[in-house]
Amino acid sequence: MSVFTIGADPEVFVKKNGKAISVHETGLPGTKKEPHKTEFGAVQQDGLAAEFNISPTSYNDFEGFNLNITRTLRDLRRLTKANLAIQPVMEFNPEYMANLPETTLELGCDPDYNAYTLEPNPRPDGTRNFRTAAGHIHIGWGADIPTENPEHMEICAGFVKMLDATVGLYMTFIDREPRRRELYGCAGAFRPKPYGVE
Length: 198
Hints:
The protein has 5 helices and 15 strands. By secondary structure, the chain is of the alpha+beta class. A hairpin with a 2-residue loop joins strand 14 and strand 15. The longest helix is centred in the last third of the chain and has 25 residues. 27% of the residues are buried.
């Protein structure tokens, strides 16, 4: 087995008749607390967006990682029965949003931290009429690590700083939508996990 594992949890939007809708209207199974298992990962509702989580692979298993992404995305398409919109920002009609359940509009349910200060990041503003989608990279190197352990937090922060200098820097060239970083995706953002870092 490899020392490191890698996983991901991309988010996508859904459209019906050309209009953005909340994923809860599609009947997609799964929630943040209880994702719906699929063969290569899981799917779930995440606010207005749909999220799919892939089973982790060895960090150097590109074919396995890619297979988990494509097959879980296929399952998500089948389960939503709607058109997926893979884009960084989706605008929603304010009147439509005003009639959505409060739980659907909630943002930032799990706090994330700033690798440079080790302080929690501010909770995103859920009153805006747009939502952002992206996804997180999950890097694993252990199991049952206490997430509140200060040493683990320091290791996660150091790891994320290195990701900022490599992956994060590259992403600023390909992601030209500045509104996404108004809600999520700022440099240094991370969550400690019992297996490593998100």
